[in-house]
Design goal:
Blueprint: E1 2-10, E2 13-21, E3 31-39, H1 42-49, E4 65-73, E5 83-87, E6 102-105, E7 110-112, H2 119-142, E8 151-153, H3 159-170, E9 175-179, H4 185-191, E10 195-198, H5 200-203, E11 214-219, H6 223-231, E12 233-241, H7 255-259, E13 263-266, H8 274-287, H9 290-295, E14 297-301, H10 305-313, E15 320-324
Parallel strand pairs: 8-9, 8-11, 9-10, 11-12, 12-13, 14-15
Antiparallel strand pairs: 1-2, 3-4, 3-6, 3-15, 4-5, 5-7
Helix pairs in contact: 1-10, 2-3, 2-8
Length: about 325
């Protein structure tokens, strides 16, 4: 038996609750993992509350990532006792995920826990931090250097935004953080943000082109925020777009792209190839300040997850949330 948060949908409606399940109910795959830590992400909160059609099959264990120890393996890369991390691959959407004490997944989806990170730290980083690193890699690949100008990070109090600020600051970039909670400026300053702007400056319909402000942007919001960020990106700059907290629409024009040579990079963390995942985790291991990571992280139990999911969607949570599956 193992504990899991299980989402179901039938004539009685949509519901999620903590249950004890038989191990025989785990899906067929080649590696079974004893989960030590998981996280609560925005996508998980949408799945748990039913606010968006994240879950594709029912019943479903949510949780898009986890870290733990291999219990059983029929995959050549893994043996019992190996410490592993999983992010994405549709886990928690189409395949039972990490908000449980146990998971059975494809060995090809796993990567080895980085040597200098604990299992808890790997989930304090989690999919949000790994996505933030993919965004930083995209800006670096574009050629943006710390001396080129300010980098805008939207959704700054969220998981991706928090880690992005800490990473960019550590690498020497001047970060401007966009947030709806400017009254919590001390948190963002602690992470390394040099300037703050109210998200209202970006969230309303704007002009096709604005004043050139940003050398680069990491956007977690979408909609008008992304459109306005593009409109104010400097000539030859780049935007890494990875989220849709403000909406899936993109009410923009082609002006920034054909008049200023701006580039928009789409960042997908779910199906990214293993080689890119390994590169991102290697850089996280090297570049992310562990003390800042600790300061942005709070811990909850599996039983706390449904309540905190509501808080997350209501904007009452900042930074990263790790889930201790053993309490």
């Amino acid at each position: 038996m193992f504990q899991a948060l299980l989402i179901d949908k039938d004539e009685a409606g949509y519901r999620s609750r903590l249950q004890s399940l038989e191990s025989s109910r785990l899906p067929e795959n080649d590696v079974t993992v004893q989960i030590a830590w998981s996280t609560l992400n925005y996508k998980d909160a949408l799945a748990i509350t039913g606010r968006a059609p994240v879950v594709r099959h029912f019943p479903m264990v949510p949780g898009i990532d986890f870290s733990g120890t291999v219990l059983e393996s029929h995959h050549p890369a893994w043996r019992p006792g190996d410490q592993v991390v999983l992010n994405g691959w549709g886990v928690g959407e189409t395949h039972w995920g990490g908000l449980a004490e146990r998971a059975r997944v494809k060995g090809d989806w796993l990567i080895r826990l980085p040597n200098t990170l604990t299992a808890r730290q790997s989930m304090a980083i989690g999919t949000a931090g790994y996505t933030a690193m993919l965004c930083v890699l995209a800006l670096e690949k574009h050629g943006i250097q710390p001396g080129d100008g300010e980098i805008l990070v939207t959704g700054a109090h969220g998981g991706v935004g928090s880690v992005a600020i800490a990473l960019l600051s550590a690498l020497g970039y001047a970060v401007t953080a966009s947030t709806g909670r400017t009254y919590e400026s001390s948190y963002l300053n602690m992470l390394g943000a040099r300037k703050l702007i109210d998200r209202a400056e970006l969230s309303a319909p704007g002009k096709a082109l604005g004043k050139e402000r940003w050398a680069g942007v990491i956007d977690t919001v979408g909609s008008h925020t992304l459109a306005n960020a593009c409109a104010s990106t400097r000539y030859g700059g780049a935007i890494a777009a990875c989220g849709l907290a403000g909406g899936m629409d993109f009410p923009a024009t082609v002006a920034p792209f054909i008049l200023r040579g701006v580039t928009l990079y789409g960042i997908d963390s779910v199906m990214a190839p293993v080689s890119l995942r390994q590169q991102a985790w290697k850089r996280l291991e090297r570049d992310l300040d562990k003390s800042r990571l600790g300061a942005m992280t709070s811990e909850i139990s599996l039983a706390d997850v449904p309540r905190v999911a509501e808080d997350l969607l209501a904007g009452r949570v900042r930074g990263r949330i790790v889930v201790n599956t053993t309490t």
